[in-house]
Specification:
The complex is a heterodimer. Chain A is mostly helical. Helix content of chain A is about 85%, strand content about 0%. Classes of the chains: A mainly alpha, B mainly alpha.
Chain lengths: ~100, ~550
């Protein structure tokens, strides 16, 4: 019985589309997250002088501190965008499959 | 028994003279903490009536919403160690404290993009359900339980010791009394109220902590006319490191590989922490799991920003209050603002609350910190009970033939054993250096649980042999490396020279685990391996669609 449901899902035209698009999107997001994070860590480890500079002549805040704050925001923004994509693209596909199969 | 334990705990607290670290009586802290205990006891009583089945006990019956779960995760994640610890690190070395916070936070994109939704679709109670989904039960459960129990033990010790010392300072209690109170409260929550009580304790505590942190940061910024740069300028002016406060510090530049290695463990460790992963089974669907992550990461990110303000604010403002120091000397060359702070630099945020908000805010923050510790420890105990009762007992020893009632009994016994063990370990490790323990817990999570979890759900070729060997290699390598490094080999065992070149193993142990899972999987020609690769199709259907998912809609 379990097999027939699996087979039904596999045969569903939208299933391949769902898996492919979702994998592509989540991998892309993961890659961006990795680039941002490793960029931050590599810069502070190997080019600390870049982060040490103040933002401007009248500033105390350094490039590194501001970057750190922006990196915090970037994590939340990426996750929000991913959820937006999921709600807009993947959920309708998924609902169609579940409706047809169950 | 419940009433007896409770009254003992309360009595012992009231009986003690309650003096805060600063020497002031702090009744407000005690009153607020007692209110917290009373409130959570009512919740536990309510939750106990709803906790009948194993599904109730481990996952609150899957009836938590994404928003609630997000708050609870934030509550779990922002432990006293990470709040006071990060604020303290910023106080000591400015920018370097930010690095830790960002590492912890970047665990969340990893969780979201790689595991969260699929985890919910594949498992019932804990992440071992997922790794054992198509691989063989016994080895996968033993691997998951070994790594999880080790992680939980390390975390528990770190929390208990840190917490005990903190409470000594904040409430003037004796260390042993503090540890016993934490252990007792934890046992009551988990034993009677299971995941439902634990979740609500986390939620309440997260709300209190976010409110307290917001107020504290706002008061700090207000002191500088809402100008963060003025606060930083003042901090740079008084701190012994001066302008270097704004730059990556000596700890990083002396060994960039170590910084990189730490960064990897922090970012990938979150997706392997058993008590965090377990929270994803408390929601009803993958969609709610997604919502949990977005709320959790928003709250955590927001809280870390507050922590930066609190840390830098502490530098700028505390020096105006010599009463928080032992003989504060600010003259150049002999500036002792780091070493003279009463209670050590982890107390920076606590003193700051007193400085900007008076004893009422100090009391509030102290009470919230105590609550935080109890909540985090309860979450750990629950994950530990699941590893013992659900993985080792129900699926390995009884081979899936135990009844729900038996599993429930074992998990409750495990809770009590873990509670007693936590208290004993807390007392044994009182004077030990436990600073390395959370780092090691993250390293093991990133080198054993994370690779096994990710490859078993996203790579067809993964087999039981590969996952078992790779997982245990990652676990062993990470542990040995840390034991042989400066933090344990020299600082704890007193040897002259470390054997590992630097303390953090991540940069080697994580790739080692991935490589060996790959290698021992592709060379696995057994019949079992063929079956496991075939089963990947069914796993993918379930993980992508959630069709056939179990455990979620019981209620």
């Amino acid at each position: 019985m379990q097999d027939t449901i699996v087979e039904k899902v596999l045969k569903h035209p939208k299933y391949a589309e769902l898996v492919q698009r979702r994998t592509r999107v989540s991998m892309a997001f993961f890659a961006v997250a990795l680039v941002i994070y490793s960029g931050f860590i590599l810069t502070l480890a190997y080019m600390p002088e870049v982060f040490a500079q103040p933002l401007g002549p009248d500033w105390t805040m350094s490039v590194g501190v501001l970057t750190g704050i922006l990196v915090v925001f970037s994590a939340v923004i990426m996750i929000s965008l991913y959820v937006y994509f999921s709600n807009k693209i993947f959920d309708p596909l998924l609902d169609a499959i579940v409706r047809d199969v169950e | 028994m419940k009433k007896f334990l409770l009254s003992t705990a309360l009595l012992s607290m009231i009986a003690q003279p309650a003096f805060a670290a600063t020497g002031q009586a702090n009744t407000s802290a005690i009153v607020m903490f007692l209110v917290f205990i009373a409130g959570t006891m009512v919740i536990t009583w309510w939750a106990a009536r709803k906790t009948q089945t194993t599904s109730d006990f481990y996952t609150a019956g899957g009836g938590i919403t994404g928003f609630q779960n997000g708050l609870a995760i934030a509550g779990d994640y922002i432990s006293a160690a990470s709040f006071l610890g990060i604020a303290g690190m910023v106080y000591v070395s400015g920018f370097d404290g930010i690095i830790y916070a960002i590492g912890f936070l970047f665990g969340w994109p990893v969780v979201m993009f790689l595991v969260a939704e699929r985890l919910r679709n594949l498992g019932r109670f804990n992440f071992a359900d997922v790794t054992a989904f198509r691989l063989e039960q016994t080895p996968m459960r033993i691997l998951a339980a070994s790594a999880s129990l080790l992680i939980i033990a390390l975390y528990l010790i770190a929390q208990m010791v840190g917490a005990g010392k903190l409470i000594v300072l904040l409430f003037g209690l004796e260390y042993k009394v503090a540890v016993v109170i934490i252990g007792t409260l934890m046992m009551i929550y988990v034993f009677f109220g299971g995941m439902t009580a634990t979740t609500w304790v986390q939620i309440i505590k997260a709300v209190l902590m976010l409110a307290g942190g917001t107020l504290l940061a706002a008061l700090v910024l207000m002191a500088f006319n809402w100008n963060p740069d003025a606060m930083l300028a003042e901090a740079v002016k008084v701190h012994p490191s001066g302008a270097e406060l704004m730059a990556p510090g000596a700890a990083v530049s002396s060994n960039p590989l170590n910084a990189l290695s730490l960064g990897l463990a922090l970012a990938f460790g979150t997706a392997g922490l058993p008590h965090i992963l377990m929270r994803f089974f408390t929601v009803s669907s993958a969609k709610e799991a997604r919502k949990s992550v977005i709320w959790a990461s928003s709250f955590i990110g927001y809280f870390y920003l507050l922590t930066f303000i609190i840390g830098f604010g502490a530098i700028a403002l505390l020096v105006r209050h010599p009463e928080f120091y032992n003989n504060l000397d600010l003259s150049a060359g002999s500036n002792n603002m780091l070493t003279a702070l009463i209670g050590g630099t982890n107390m920076a945020a606590v003193h700051l609350s007193n400085a900007v908000g008076g004893s009422l805010l100090l009391g509030f923050l102290a009470a919230v910190t105590f609550a935080t510790i109890v909540a985090v420890v309860a979450g750990l105990a629950l994950a530990g009970a699941a590893a013992i009762a659900h993985d080792l007992y129900a699926n390995v020893i009884a081979r899936g033939r135990s009844t729900e009632k038996q599993e429930m009994r074992i998990s409750k016994i495990s809770t009590l054993v873990l509670g007693v063990l936590a208290v004993l370990l807390g007392i044994v490790f009182e004077d030990q250096n436990v600073a390395f323990m959370v780092g090691l817990a993250f390293a093991i999570a990133a080198s054993a649980n994370f690779p096994v979890l990710v490859l078993s759900i996203s790579w067809r070729g993964c087999t039981t042999r590969g996952a078992t060997i790779g997982g245990f290699l990652g676990l062993t390598f990470a542990t040995l490396w840390v034991v042989l490094s400066k933090t344990v080999w020299v600082d704890v065992f007193g040897n002259a020279e470390p054997i590992s070149p630097f303390p953090n193993p991540g940069i080697f142990s994580i790739p080692l685990a991935f490589f060996s899972i790959w290698f021992f999987s592709v060379t696995d020609k057994s019949a079992r391996a063929v079956k496991e690769r075939d089963a990947f199709t069914a796993l993918t259907v379930r993980s992508q669609t959630g069709i056939g998912r179990s455990g979620a809609q019981d209620h």
